[in-house]
Amino acid sequence: MDIMDASLLIIGVILLALGYLIGVKKQTWLLSGFNEKRVKDKVKLAHLVGGANVLLGSILIIGAVVDVKSVEYLVMLVVGVMVSLVIFVNVKMVE
């Protein structure tokens, strides 16, 4: 396992842990810039963001274990989904 695979594995585990804490345990204070008074549905936000983190963390872990050759595309996918999620949440879920 080279350094890139180890990095993907570490980031994947962190995203899985964050996904669990946000999605299952509803620890929304972990979200940067979270203002409870502005969010329409706190539970829906927690499920959406937590689920996305679990999915992306799983993709990164699988990519590290399988030894994906195009790591750049995998990272671009994860960043793209995260940016899209931030835009969606700010447009649809925040007042």
Automatic annotation (TrEMBL):
<protein>
    <recommendedName>
        <fullName>Exonuclease</fullName>
    </recommendedName>
</protein>
<keyword id="KW-1133">Transmembrane helix</keyword>
<feature type="transmembrane region" description="Helical">
    <location>
        <begin position="71"/>
        <end position="91"/>
    </location>
</feature>
<dbReference type="InterPro" id="IPR017259">
    <property type="entry name" value="UCP037672"/>
</dbReference>
<keyword id="KW-0472">Membrane</keyword>
<keyword id="KW-0812">Transmembrane</keyword>
<feature type="transmembrane region" description="Helical">
    <location>
        <begin position="6"/>
        <end position="24"/>
    </location>
</feature>
<dbReference type="Pfam" id="PF12650">
    <property type="entry name" value="DUF3784"/>
</dbReference>
<feature type="transmembrane region" description="Helical">
    <location>
        <begin position="45"/>
        <end position="65"/>
    </location>
</feature>
